[in-house]
């Protein structure tokens, strides 16, 4: 008769699996494991953080801007750094550094996925740390609420003219970010070249560029959007894969995101880089922005590459 816990290893040794504590039921063993964890916590309470095991935090299903912004460390509260949300293993602030190696960012996703909300959070955090904004909203957008803010120039036309854009951006070197919501809806033969120039060399003038678009538009991007796409920086909200079999019962919802980043930048914290490079589907590769996430990075990154190449 074969006893519970009895087994044979592949090299032929017969073994009896050890119990963590008396009492063989699953419940008793789980309780023993909890007790061991509690004891280890107590014993190692004084250990410096670097010597402690990596802790994987639980992402909140929803997070308020102020709660997320409170966690932004002092050194990131500077011009050209904007907050996206919380994410990574330690559920820390994840943001965009427009002063980094690539001063552009794309917020891609289907309608209703939270693109305008993501841009609004970025906008508020950029303004909070002294970045001026040029906001283009070719259609109704929560960003229009920024109208009248002293740090904001708002252009609501579907076809802004070159002089309008130039005047809004200005000629100085102070940090600015051009935010375009619903970039797919801009009708822009006239300012296409100017936006492209900002994407390609705005950095020299302290100008960052971020656009909210649909994934389809990015897949077939033309004109200035294709220049933006080449920088390969952005966040993909509600990737379609999230609706499918990988997370049954956990459909993608607004604000859920994966942040693909190719090539490390000053703003890509180690956890993000690592997750991208490994591109596995373990828990460690979960990334988030703007609140929530349940996209396995590998999936979203391959999705992104598909649409970005
Ligand atoms: N980060 C978020 N957390 C929770 N709910 C969100 C978030 N972003 C968006 N939503 C919800 O989704 C709706 C659509 O968001 P919106 O930003 O307008 O999407 P889009 O611009 O992509 O069409 C919002 O009205 C809000 O209810
Ligand atoms: Mg929108």
How would you sum up this structure, described in words?
By secondary structure, this protein is an alpha/beta fold. The chain has two domains: 6-51, no CATH class; 65-308, Rossmann fold. The chain is built from nine helices and eleven strands. It has helices at residues 26-43, 65-70, 115-128, 162-169, 192-201, 215-219, 223-230, 270-278, 297-308, and strands at residues 6-8, 14-16, 81-87, 92-97, 104-108, 132-136, 152-155, 176-180, 207-213, 234-237, 257-258. Helix 5 runs parallel beside helix 7 (223-230). Bound molecules: adenosine-5'-diphosphate and magnesium ion.
Compact description:
The chain has 309 residues and is α/β, with parallel strands linked by helices. It has helices at residues 26-43, 65-70, 115-128, 162-169, 192-201, 215-219, 223-230, 270-278, 297-308, and strands at residues 6-8, 14-16, 81-87, 92-97, 104-108, 132-136, 152-155, 176-180, 207-213, 234-237, 257-258.
């Amino acid at each position: 008769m074969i006893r519970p816990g009895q087994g044979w290893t592949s090299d032929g040794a017969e073994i009896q699996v050890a119990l963590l504590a008396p009492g063989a039921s699953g419940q008793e063993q789980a309780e023993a494991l909890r007790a061991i964890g509690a004891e280890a916590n107590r014993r190692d309470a004084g250990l410096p953080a670097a010597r402690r095991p990596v802790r994987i935090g639980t992402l909140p299903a929803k997070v308020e801007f102020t709660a997320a912004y409170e966690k932004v460390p002092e050194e990131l509260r500077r011009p050209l750094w904007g907050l996206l949300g919380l994410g990574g293993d330690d559920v820390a602030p994840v943001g965009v550094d427009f002063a980094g190696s690539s001063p552009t960012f794309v917020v891609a996703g289907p309608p209703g996925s939270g693109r305008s909300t993501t841009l609004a959070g970025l906008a508020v955090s950029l303004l909070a740390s002294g970045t001026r904004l040029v906001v283009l909203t070719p259609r109704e957008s929560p960003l229009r609420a920024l109208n009248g803010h002293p740090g904001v120039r708002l252009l609501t036309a579907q076809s802004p003219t070159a002089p309008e854009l130039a005047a809004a951006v200005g000629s100085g070197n102070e940090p600015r970010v051009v935010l375009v919501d619903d970039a797919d809806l801009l009708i822009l033969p006239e300012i296409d070249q100017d936006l492209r120039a900002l994407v390609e060399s705005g950095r020299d003038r302290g100008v960052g560029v971020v656009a909210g678009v649909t994934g389809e538009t990015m897949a077939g991007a033309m004109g200035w959007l294709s220049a933006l796409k080449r920088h390969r920086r952005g966040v993909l909200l509600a990737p379609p894969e999230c609706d499918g079999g990988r997370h049954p019962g956990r459909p993608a919802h607004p604000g859920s995101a994966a942040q693909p980043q190719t090539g490390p930048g000053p703003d890509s914290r180690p956890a993000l880089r690592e997750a991208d490079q490994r591109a596995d589907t373990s828990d460690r590769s979960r990334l988030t922005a703007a609140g929530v996430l349940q996209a396995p990075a590998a999936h979203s990154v391959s999705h992104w590459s598909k649409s970005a190449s």
